[in-house]
Amino acid sequence: MRIGILGLGRIGAFHAETLSGLDAVESLVVADPFAAAAKSAAERFGAEVADSPEAVLAAGVDGVVVAAATDAHPGLILAAVEAGIPVFCEKPVARTMAEGVEVLKAVAGSAVPIQIGYNRRFDTGFVNARAAVRSGELGTLHTVRSTTLDPAPPPAAYIAASGGIFRDCSVHDFDIIRWVTGREVTEVYAVGGNRGADFIKEAGDADTTGAILTLDDGTIAVVSNSRHNARGYDVRMEIHGFTDSIAVGLEDKLPLRSVEPGVTFPAGTPHDFFMDRFTAAYRAELTAFTEVVAGTRTSPCTIEDALEAGWIAEACTLSLHEHRPVTIAEVRAS
C-alpha cells in the first residue's frame, strides 16, 4: 500500500523509517513545511516528496500518518476524512479539549477510520498486563501504579507549547490505565513541584507530579511523572489484585539501581529515550494502522479513547492549580 506522512520532525521521521520497513507498505509520500526535512526523508527512505498536505492526499495514498505540530492535527484529520482516506494521528487530537470535541462531532457518522497514536497499547508488557486483568487471574484489583520519568526536560520552547506535563506526558499513563483495567476514572487529586529547570516553572508548569485517580469500581491508581530522571527513561506499571500482583517494565534495561546487598538486577544498559523503550511498540502500532487501512481491523485507539485520556489530564491540571479533588464530570461540564 501507499502511505502519506504529514510532518517529518523527530516522530515523523521515526515513523517514516518504521513504515519503510513494513512488508505491507510499498511506497511513501511525504510533506513537511521545511523542505529540507522532506528531502532528507525522501533520500533516506526512497519516499516521494509532495509540496503540501493537499498534494499528499491527492497522490493516491491508501492511508495517511499525521505527525505535524499539534495545532495542525484537527485540520489534517478532517481533510483526510473528507478525502475518504484512513488516518493515523499522533496524540493529541487537538490543542484543547474543546477543539478535540469539535473534531469528534465533525467526523461523527463517517465510515473513514481514524487511529490516534497511543503506542503503549502495543507494547508486549502492557498487552500481557491487560490480558492478565481481563482473565481475572489477579482477582479484584485494588491498586495500580503507573510511572513515566523522562531523563531530561524537553527544550523550553516545547514546554511552553506543551499544555503542561499532565496533557503532554501523564496522558500516556492515563490512557494505559484505562486500557489495561477497562475502567473509567471518576475523580483525581494532583500535586506537583519544581526542583529543576527554571523555565518549566516560568511556563506555569511542574517538572514533577503525582496524581491519585479513583476508578469507577473503587480501584486506586497512583501516577508518578517527572522531567528529571538522570538514570534514563523509566516507564513502568504495577497492578495489584487480591489474588496476584504483576509489573510491566521490570526488566534488565530498567533505569533504576538497587542498593540491596548481592543484588545485580537490573544488569542491562538503561533505556535512555522513548524511541528506545518503545521501538517494537511503534512498529506494532503502525502495523495495526496498515491493517486498519486494509479494512481487516477496526481502529485500536479512537478519537473517543484519546479524549477520555484528555479529560483526565484536564482534571489533573485543574486539581494541581486549585489544590483540590476534581471529578471528570466537572471538567466535562466546564
From TrEMBL:
InterPro entries: Gfo/Idh/MocA-like_OxRdtase_N, GFO_IDH_MocA-like_dom, NAD(P)-bd_dom_sf
Ranges where the GFO/IDH/MocA-like oxidoreductase domain occurs: 127-243
TM annotation in the entry: none
Record keywords: Oxidoreductase
UniProt domain Gfo/Idh/MocA-like oxidoreductase N-terminal: residue ranges: 1-118
UniProt signal peptide: none
Pfam families (alphabetical): GFO_IDH_MocA, GFO_IDH_MocA_C3
Gene Ontology molecular-function annotations: nucleotide binding; oxidoreductase activity
Family per record: Belongs to the Gfo/Idh/MocA family.
PANTHER family per the UniProt record, alphabetical: BINDING ROSSMANN FOLD OXIDOREDUCTASE, PUTATIVE (AFU_ORTHOLOGUE AFUA_2G10240)-RELATED, NAD(P)-BINDING ROSSMANN-FOLD SUPERFAMILY PROTEIN-RELATED
Protein name, entry field: Oxidoreductase
Organism: Streptomyces phaeofaciens
